[in-house]
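Q: How would the structure tokens look for this protein?
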Amino acid sequence: MNVDARGGAVSTAPLRGLPNGSVGERTGTLRPVSASIVLLATDADHVYDEVDAVLGGDHEVVRVHAGAEVLAAVRDHDPVLVVLDLQIGNMGGMAACLDLRLEERAERIPPQRVVMLLDRDADEFLAKRAEADAWIVKPIDALLLRRTARDVLADA
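A: Here is the predicted structure in token form.
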């Protein structure tokens, strides 16, 4: 089940006919069983919907709504991948990525794989400065996001 980091269920669309699934709590339909977590930090519902549609079949997508929640969510969920929207709430994706890198260097968290979702090509500079492993420019291209996530995880 895809869940909000605060514990609430987010995805309610039934998935039918999935092998090796588990029964969904409301509809009795099958849901995929996921062994890995992708942490997504965004306050935009459409960004969550797009990322969940692309990565949710292979991973459990856990969402936080602000960059200030990312570090605690990393500690709580131990994600295989962190996806940060550049423009979020009180602490943007760049600051959240820098915070993760500082915590890694202090050895308070294990190394994280980070993909940033940028607003424009010129924001590449910010992603490099924040030491993101990869980035893509919105609007999200599903195939590009899937390939980027796969490549970043393969380098882990």
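The helical segments are 45-55, 70-77, 93-105, 124-129, 142-154.

The beta strands are 3-4, 21-23, 30-32, 37-41, 60-64, 81-85, 114-118, 134-137.

Upvote if useful.
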